[in-house]
Automatic annotation (TrEMBL):
This is CMS1 protein. GO terms for cellular component: 90S preribosome; nucleus. It comes from the Eukaryota. InterPro entries: Cms1, P-loop_NTPase.
Amino acid sequence: KKISDVLEKSAPKAGVPADLQNLLSQHFGENHSVIELEELKLSDTCFLPANDLTHSFSSYLKEICPKWAKLRKNHKEKKSVVMLVICSSALRSLELIKSMTAFKGDCKVLKLFAKHIKIKEQINMLEKGVFHIGVGTPGRVKALVEQDGLCLNSTKYMILDWNWRDQKLRRMMDIPEIKKETIDLLEMCIIKLCREGSVKLGLF
């Protein structure tokens, strides 16, 4: 059965923290020890309220981040963003950037995907300017962190574009490559930051 056949017949169901927890357990279950798995567990306190499918992107961000104006004003660090939004493609990143207009005000948003943008350009921009929100694909974000172009010390929110479906009705975690890159990014640094309490995860 193709995934799109299954999805076509099933009503959309909003993602919840347990979905991500289960995904991580399945992914790491085979080759991690019990102790390692414990270190990759995220408690419910690591999560922001999930989108119940009634929200626009701006209204969702307003709900989970009511003090945005203050956070935005206080953010002065280069090479970093306060909010990181992870989605499945460059095209979807552009859609999300457009649809957060009501929320973002005059803050600076940086596109963090590979299509038509060289990684060196993104590293230069991050070094020179102050950006508040980064929107992009997990592969490019991971590469930027690995190359020390993006530092996550100031990041407070990481939003996964969890419920959206592409033309084939696949969500980001239904696409093997995107799923793997997202999990790699989470394992590399995000889970640790969530467990320390500095980053909160949101499922949009």
